[in-house]
Amino acid sequence: MCVILGIQPDVPTEVNENGGRQSATPYAFHFLPPHAMFAAAEVAKYGAEKYGETLFDRNYKKIPPEEHVNHAIQHLFAYLAKDKSDDHLSHAILRAMFAFEVDHERDRVDGEA
Fold first, then answer.
1. Average pLDDT, the chain
2. Which one of 36, 44, 65, 92 has the lowest number of neighbouring Cβ atoms within 10 Å?
3. What whole-number distance in Å separates Cα of residue 55 and Cα of residue 98?
């Protein structure tokens, strides 16, 4: 069972400066760079269509994190070499995210074994 810390029903509440009460959160999604997130989502959509990925059959989860890192580095070097054939930074961002997710899943499974 996957548990995302900080969103359980028993999370402590906090009060803001206006007296509004809500669950405390350890996250700050509002600080994520929105253009980078949209770019990563655009590449994810393209890849899902290209490789036949579905919500319940994620192709990226079938690839080891080391291979995702290799592809991320490949895109970063292509960017540094001024290659314009692709949006290399968007691909690098997404590959790094995939590597993190697959590695996190692997660690979680290894920890349960």
1. 94
2. 36
3. 15
Could you tell me how many residues make up the chain?
A: 113
Give the span between the Cα atoms of 92 and 73, in whole angstroms.
Answer: 7
Domain limits at 66?
33-112
- Angstrom distance (rounded) from CA 102 to CA 104: 5
Asked whether 104 and 80 are in contact (CB, 8 A), the reply is no
Number of domains in the chain: 1
- Has residue 51 been placed in a domain? yes
> Structure tokens of 75?
């895109």
23-72 per-position pLDDT tens digit: 999 999 999 999 999 999 999 999 999 999 999 999 999 999 999 999 99
